[in-house]
Design goal:
By secondary structure, the chain is mainly beta. About 0% of the residues lie in helices and about 60% in strands.
């Protein structure tokens, strides 16, 4: 999948979130709770507590299943 719609006017492409505006698309902050179906190839796995999360560009994702299909939910940001 190339572009996924994750909100009313929010889209996701290769780890970056975009908001649709009057002049096209602009990069936007990741929406908390957004569900995406593909993470970029260079995504890292980080362990926080006993939980494994996926991190790309500082955004943390948790693996979830939506109607039996693997997906990833935005759960926060990795604080450096």
């Amino acid at each position: 999948k190339s572009m996924e719609q994750v909100g009313n006017e929010t889209f996701y492409v290769k780890g970056i979130f975009y908001k649709k505006g009057t002049k096209g698309y602009a990069v936007t902050k990741q929406p908390q709770g957004a569900i995406v179906y593909g993470l970029p190839y260079m995504t890292d796995v980080v362990t926080i507590g006993n939980e494994a999360y996926y991190e790309y560009l500082g955004v943390l994702y948790k693996r979830v299943f939506v109607q039996g299909e693997q997906a990833f939910e935005v759960v926060g940001e990795l604080v450096q």
